[in-house]
TrEMBL record:
GO molecular function: oxidoreductase activity
Bilayer-spanning residue ranges: none
InterPro entries assigned: NAD(P)-bd_dom_sf, Peroxisomal_Beta-Oxidation, SDR_fam
Protein family (similarity comment): Belongs to the short-chain dehydrogenases/reductases (SDR) family.
Pfam assignment, any one: adh_short
The organism of origin for this protein: Macrophomina phaseolina (strain MS6) (Charcoal rot fungus)
Domain of life assignment: Eukaryota
Keyword Oxidoreductase carried by entry: yes
Protein's name in the database: Short-chain dehydrogenase/reductase SDR
UniProt keyword terms in alphabetical order: Oxidoreductase
Length: 205
Protein backbone atom coordinates (compact mmCIF):
# COMPACT_ATOMS: atom_id res chain seq x y z
CA UNK A 1 0.00 0.00 0.00
CA UNK A 2 2.75 2.47 0.95
CA UNK A 3 4.79 1.40 -2.06
CA UNK A 4 1.96 2.13 -4.47
CA UNK A 5 0.65 5.40 -3.07
CA UNK A 6 3.76 6.99 -1.55
CA UNK A 7 6.47 5.26 -3.56
CA UNK A 8 4.56 5.62 -6.81
CA UNK A 9 3.92 9.32 -6.26
CA UNK A 10 7.56 9.86 -5.34
CA UNK A 11 8.89 7.98 -8.37
CA UNK A 12 6.67 9.74 -10.91
CA UNK A 13 7.43 13.17 -9.44
CA UNK A 14 11.16 12.45 -9.27
CA UNK A 15 11.19 11.47 -12.94
CA UNK A 16 9.34 14.63 -14.03
CA UNK A 17 11.16 17.02 -11.68
CA UNK A 18 14.31 17.71 -13.78
CA UNK A 19 12.17 18.57 -16.81
CA UNK A 20 9.96 20.95 -14.84
CA UNK A 21 13.02 22.50 -13.24
CA UNK A 22 14.69 23.00 -16.63
CA UNK A 23 11.67 24.76 -18.10
CA UNK A 24 11.13 26.77 -14.89
CA UNK A 25 7.52 25.67 -14.64
CA UNK A 26 5.74 22.69 -13.20
CA UNK A 27 2.61 21.61 -11.41
CA UNK A 28 2.17 18.46 -9.32
CA UNK A 29 -1.05 17.12 -7.82
CA UNK A 30 -0.77 14.39 -5.20
CA UNK A 31 -3.97 12.36 -4.98
CA UNK A 32 -4.79 11.81 -1.34
CA UNK A 33 -8.01 10.80 0.40
CA UNK A 34 -10.23 11.77 3.32
CA UNK A 35 -9.52 8.28 4.63
CA UNK A 36 -6.34 9.83 6.04
CA UNK A 37 -8.54 11.40 8.74
CA UNK A 38 -9.12 7.90 10.06
CA UNK A 39 -11.51 4.98 9.74
CA UNK A 40 -11.45 1.43 10.98
CA UNK A 41 -10.17 -1.16 8.46
CA UNK A 42 -8.37 1.61 6.55
CA UNK A 43 -5.14 1.95 8.55
CA UNK A 44 -2.66 1.24 5.75
CA UNK A 45 -4.56 3.23 3.13
CA UNK A 46 -5.11 6.16 5.48
CA UNK A 47 -1.45 6.15 6.51
CA UNK A 48 -0.30 6.18 2.89
CA UNK A 49 -2.63 9.04 1.99
CA UNK A 50 -1.59 11.14 4.99
CA UNK A 51 2.05 10.57 4.03
CA UNK A 52 1.31 12.27 0.72
CA UNK A 53 0.33 15.44 2.58
CA UNK A 54 3.79 15.52 4.16
CA UNK A 55 5.42 14.82 0.79
CA UNK A 56 3.37 17.59 -0.80
CA UNK A 57 4.44 20.17 1.75
CA UNK A 58 8.11 19.18 1.68
CA UNK A 59 8.67 19.26 -2.07
CA UNK A 60 6.46 22.33 -2.50
CA UNK A 61 9.15 24.30 -0.66
CA UNK A 62 11.89 22.74 -2.78
CA UNK A 63 10.11 23.61 -6.00
CA UNK A 64 8.87 27.14 -5.44
CA UNK A 65 12.09 28.87 -6.52
CA UNK A 66 11.76 27.01 -9.84
CA UNK A 67 8.06 27.91 -10.28
CA UNK A 68 7.08 24.32 -9.47
CA UNK A 69 3.94 24.18 -7.35
CA UNK A 70 2.88 21.03 -5.53
CA UNK A 71 -0.55 20.53 -3.97
CA UNK A 72 -2.65 17.57 -2.90
CA UNK A 73 -6.29 16.82 -3.54
CA UNK A 74 -8.64 14.42 -1.77
CA UNK A 75 -11.37 13.66 -4.33
CA UNK A 76 -14.63 11.84 -3.74
CA UNK A 77 -16.94 10.79 -6.53
CA UNK A 78 -19.26 8.18 -7.92
CA UNK A 79 -17.21 5.49 -9.64
CA UNK A 80 -17.56 1.75 -10.33
CA UNK A 81 -15.23 1.16 -7.38
CA UNK A 82 -17.49 3.19 -5.08
CA UNK A 83 -20.49 1.24 -6.32
CA UNK A 84 -18.78 -2.05 -5.45
CA UNK A 85 -17.33 -0.92 -2.12
CA UNK A 86 -20.17 1.03 -0.52
CA UNK A 87 -23.03 -0.87 1.08
CA UNK A 88 -25.59 1.94 1.43
CA UNK A 89 -27.96 2.61 -1.46
CA UNK A 90 -28.92 6.08 -0.21
CA UNK A 91 -25.28 7.19 -0.13
CA UNK A 92 -24.70 5.73 -3.59
CA UNK A 93 -27.79 7.50 -4.90
CA UNK A 94 -26.57 10.87 -3.58
CA UNK A 95 -23.10 10.29 -4.99
CA UNK A 96 -24.48 9.32 -8.39
CA UNK A 97 -26.67 12.44 -8.51
CA UNK A 98 -24.40 15.06 -6.95
CA UNK A 99 -20.85 13.67 -7.16
CA UNK A 100 -20.06 12.45 -10.68
CA UNK A 101 -16.35 11.70 -10.92
CA UNK A 102 -15.89 14.10 -13.85
CA UNK A 103 -16.63 17.08 -11.62
CA UNK A 104 -13.31 16.60 -9.84
CA UNK A 105 -11.59 17.80 -13.02
CA UNK A 106 -12.15 21.60 -12.74
CA UNK A 107 -10.39 21.94 -9.34
CA UNK A 108 -7.47 19.94 -10.71
CA UNK A 109 -7.32 22.11 -13.83
CA UNK A 110 -7.20 25.24 -11.69
CA UNK A 111 -4.45 23.92 -9.42
CA UNK A 112 -2.24 23.07 -12.41
CA UNK A 113 -2.99 26.32 -14.27
CA UNK A 114 -0.12 28.74 -14.82
CA UNK A 115 -2.13 31.53 -13.15
CA UNK A 116 -2.61 29.52 -9.94
CA UNK A 117 -0.11 30.59 -7.26
CA UNK A 118 -1.28 28.07 -4.64
CA UNK A 119 1.58 25.89 -3.38
CA UNK A 120 1.96 23.30 -0.63
CA UNK A 121 -1.73 23.11 0.21
CA UNK A 122 -4.31 20.32 0.46
CA UNK A 123 -7.87 20.41 -0.81
CA UNK A 124 -11.00 18.31 -1.02
CA UNK A 125 -13.29 17.95 -4.02
CA UNK A 126 -16.72 16.33 -3.89
CA UNK A 127 -19.04 17.10 -6.78
CA UNK A 128 -19.11 20.88 -7.06
CA UNK A 129 -17.87 21.46 -3.51
CA UNK A 130 -14.20 22.35 -3.05
CA UNK A 131 -12.63 22.87 0.38
CA UNK A 132 -9.25 23.42 1.97
CA UNK A 133 -7.63 20.97 4.39
CA UNK A 134 -4.98 22.31 6.73
CA UNK A 135 -2.80 21.45 9.71
CA UNK A 136 -3.34 23.72 12.68
CA UNK A 137 -2.12 24.01 16.27
CA UNK A 138 -3.88 25.43 19.31
CA UNK A 139 -2.14 28.09 21.44
CA UNK A 140 -1.86 25.34 24.04
CA UNK A 141 -0.90 25.52 27.70
CA UNK A 142 2.46 26.67 29.06
CA UNK A 143 3.30 25.18 32.42
CA UNK A 144 4.64 27.29 35.30
CA UNK A 145 8.38 27.38 35.94
CA UNK A 146 7.99 27.59 39.73
CA UNK A 147 6.35 24.17 40.11
CA UNK A 148 7.32 20.59 39.35
CA UNK A 149 6.33 19.62 35.82
CA UNK A 150 4.15 16.54 36.09
CA UNK A 151 1.21 14.70 34.60
CA UNK A 152 -1.28 16.21 37.05
CA UNK A 153 -0.58 19.75 35.81
CA UNK A 154 -1.27 18.66 32.24
CA UNK A 155 -4.44 16.84 33.33
CA UNK A 156 -5.74 19.88 35.21
CA UNK A 157 -5.12 22.17 32.23
CA UNK A 158 -6.15 19.83 29.44
CA UNK A 159 -9.01 22.07 28.34
CA UNK A 160 -6.44 24.78 27.56
CA UNK A 161 -4.37 22.30 25.55
CA UNK A 162 -7.28 21.40 23.27
CA UNK A 163 -9.02 24.80 23.15
CA UNK A 164 -9.18 25.74 19.46
CA UNK A 165 -9.62 29.46 20.10
CA UNK A 166 -6.87 31.36 18.31
CA UNK A 167 -5.40 28.32 16.57
CA UNK A 168 -2.57 28.85 14.08
CA UNK A 169 -2.43 27.31 10.61
CA UNK A 170 1.11 26.18 9.91
CA UNK A 171 2.73 26.89 6.56
CA UNK A 172 6.28 25.71 7.22
CA UNK A 173 8.89 25.35 9.95
CA UNK A 174 10.41 28.74 9.10
CA UNK A 175 7.11 30.35 10.04
CA UNK A 176 6.07 28.13 12.94
CA UNK A 177 9.51 27.66 14.54
CA UNK A 178 10.00 31.21 15.88
CA UNK A 179 6.41 31.22 17.15
CA UNK A 180 6.98 27.95 18.99
CA UNK A 181 10.13 29.23 20.70
CA UNK A 182 8.38 32.48 21.61
CA UNK A 183 5.50 30.52 23.15
CA UNK A 184 7.88 28.34 25.16
CA UNK A 185 10.39 30.98 26.26
CA UNK A 186 8.48 34.23 25.77
CA UNK A 187 10.39 37.35 24.79
CA UNK A 188 13.54 35.70 26.12
CA UNK A 189 13.75 33.34 23.16
CA UNK A 190 15.08 35.80 20.58
CA UNK A 191 14.76 33.09 17.92
CA UNK A 192 14.44 34.47 14.40
CA UNK A 193 13.33 32.87 11.15
CA UNK A 194 16.92 32.98 9.91
CA UNK A 195 18.09 31.05 12.98
CA UNK A 196 15.50 28.33 12.36
CA UNK A 197 16.59 28.02 8.72
CA UNK A 198 20.24 27.78 9.76
CA UNK A 199 19.48 25.16 12.41
CA UNK A 200 18.01 22.75 9.87
CA UNK A 201 20.80 23.01 7.31
CA UNK A 202 22.77 19.78 6.77
CA UNK A 203 25.96 19.66 8.81
CA UNK A 204 29.20 19.86 6.88
CA UNK A 205 30.92 16.48 6.73
Amino acid sequence: MLGVHVGGSWNVTQAAWPHMKKQKFGRVIMTTSLMMIGMETQSTYGTAKMALVGLTRAIAHEGKEHNIHVNSLAPSGYTPLAERALQNEQILSIMKRFMPAAEVAPPVLWLVHEDCAVNGESFTAQGRRVGRLFIAETPGFLGPEDRDWNMEIIRDNWEKVVDETGYAVHTDIKESGPRMFAQVAGAKSGISTEMVIEAFQPKAS
